[in-house]
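Q: My labmate handed me this sequence with no annotations at all. I'd like to see what the chain might look like in three dimensions before we decide whether it's worth expressing. Could you predict it?
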Amino acid sequence: MVWRYILTAVIGYLLGCILFGYIAGKLFKGKDIRKAGSGNVGTANAIRTYGWGVGLFTFVGDVAKGVVAALIGWWLLPQMVTSGVSLLDMSPQPGIPVGVCVGGVAAVLGHIWPAFLKFRGGKGVATSLGVFLVMMPVHAAIVLGVCLIIVACTRTMSIGSLVGTALMTGVSLVFFWGDIVNHVTCVVLLILVYYSHRMNIKRLAEGKENLL
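A: Here is what I predict for the chain of 212 residues:
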């Protein structure tokens, strides 16, 4: 059984190391996105540096690898620790497999610290979204809509990203209370995303954050 955990983590991490912002920069512009704009390989810098087309390619690719990593984890480690319950009406909610947590978190780690690019990656938001879409598809889609509205109103990707990740943790606690794997996954992803945004948070506090 241990080998399944290791395999799930390794596959997830390697998938996370596929940085679509870097690929898009090389493929469409012949440039290294790490040497442009903020130097980040995520969606926001891709949009600011190369436009919405490249940014959308980056976003979809990074979301997709989170989905794939979580689904592979589901297949390799399908066991569930606990189920959940909605605190709104006390209705039972299905639990998520351990593999979704292992594979999904590993993918986000790979995105933030990719071994193939000297451990200099993105912020992990889009990849986290991919994991959330496997865990809680309807809720994640709704939160994504809210975040897009926030980004459109503020023109600040980091605000939408930080609010969205926090909202998904809240969704986990309210709608899937008792599902330990769900809670742990959300909290770990929240910590990773906020840690990777530490400089953004500082710039937001100073009123100097980059706009789209």
